[in-house]
Amino acid sequence: MKKILLIGLLGIALFGYLDKNVQTTQIVQNVFAADIVASDSASNSALQNAIDNRQSNVQVAGSGEVTKMLADDLKGSRHQRFILKIASGTTLLVAHNIDLASRIDGLNVGDTVEFYGVYEFNNKGGVIHWTHHDPRGKHQGGWLKHNGNVYQ
Length: 152
Hints:
32% helix, five-stranded mixed beta barrel, alpha+beta, 32% strand, 7 strands
């Protein structure tokens, strides 16, 4: 009985250790992916395809110019919000969860922001969200990049 208990405790400790390392590895991979995915033309075309076809729940990458800063959404999970204009002229609302990721301090109209997240269609152009890690590890992590800093 003691051996079973000991094995169980070791298993729990090992799981905790591995889970922590998986999260750290995922964060590091996302930081490196930030440079790769943002320049990937297939990802940018996936965004345009989702916009053109009014699709939702599509993982996309792209970049745009901040055209408007909005007040934070403080209902439920807090989100930093701003409007980006992408190369096609489409405007997108970015809803960046600041309970799970760092806020982009110093963000201003005219700044360029790269993103990797989930696109949701709406009649105003669409929304980009999931621009952060998933603490549960069940959803692909996203990010925002501004002035060389990655926020996830």
